[in-house]
Amino acid sequence: MWIIFTWVIFGLVTFSHGVEKLSNLESCALGFCPQKKYAVAIHNALIADIKINESAIISTITNKTADDLEAIYVVYKSVYGESLINQLRDYLTGKFEELVIALISRDYDFYAREIHHCLRGNSDDENVLIDILLTQEGEKLRALKQAYTIHYLTSLEEEFEKHTTGNFRKLILKLLECKRDEYEEINYSHAENDARKLYHAG
Q1: Of 63, 37, 41, the residue nearest 52 (C-alpha)
Q2: Cut 0.90: pTM above it
Q3: Using CA atoms, how far apart are residues 10 and 1, in angstroms rounded to an integer?
Q4: d(Cα 22, Cα 30) in Å, to the nearest integer?
Q5: What does UniProt give as the signal peptide span (predicted)?
Q6: What is the largest CA-CA distance in the chain?
Q7: What is the rounded end-to-end Cα distance, in angstroms, of the chain?
Q8: At what angle do helices 66-80 and 36-46 cross, to 10 degrees?
């Protein structure tokens, strides 16, 4: 009996250590979701009787990692059947709304919304578009393109074809091909040749 009991305890301890090594989303898939209580806390803060408990929202999200916040986002949907982003938009306002949504959002979802706002909204800031697209590595840029298509049912390429012109459009469409060399080692000979071509191109 004691041998069996010992092995059961050993198995539980081993499992708990294993769960710690898993990501939040993997843990949730196994039925052990440490971020569920935070999803509940955010929900309760939003639907508070008197007014929205902004302090509770701040204390819940500001000390979480990106992995934690992604798990909260996913768990909220599974528990309440609503998108956390949509709920935040419904209940919050102003700069606080924008900041909380930016923190909760996965980076490629956030960038997809910012690009859409620049292309379709009131802002036409080419610098924002350049800052976003030039800083994305191949894998992240592909994820961003996929997120944009999911959210807005059209491709980034089609959007830039419609809403930009000239050499700026050519540059962006070239970037969206995701063919940039991502090797960390610098080829100085190629860099020099490229610099000369740019110089002579004016």
Answers
A1: 41
A2: no
A3: 14
A4: 10
A5: 1-18
A6: 85
A7: 84
A8: 70
**Both structure tokens of 18:** 């294993």
CA distance 95 to 142: 29
DSSP string, 169-202: HHHHHHHTT------SS--HHHHHHHHHHHHHH-
Amino acid code (one letter) for 126: E
Helices and strands (H and E) in the chain: how many: 13, 0
Tokens representing residue 74 in the block = 């996913």
> Each residue's pLDDT tens digit in the chain (202 positions)?
444 433 333 343 333 444 344 455 555 554 557 888 999 999 999 998 788 999 999 999 999 998 899 899 999 999 999 999 999 999 999 999 999 999 998 888 989 999 998 888 755 578 889 899 989 888 999 999 999 999 999 999 999 999 999 999 999 999 999 887 766 677 777 767 877 777 777 6
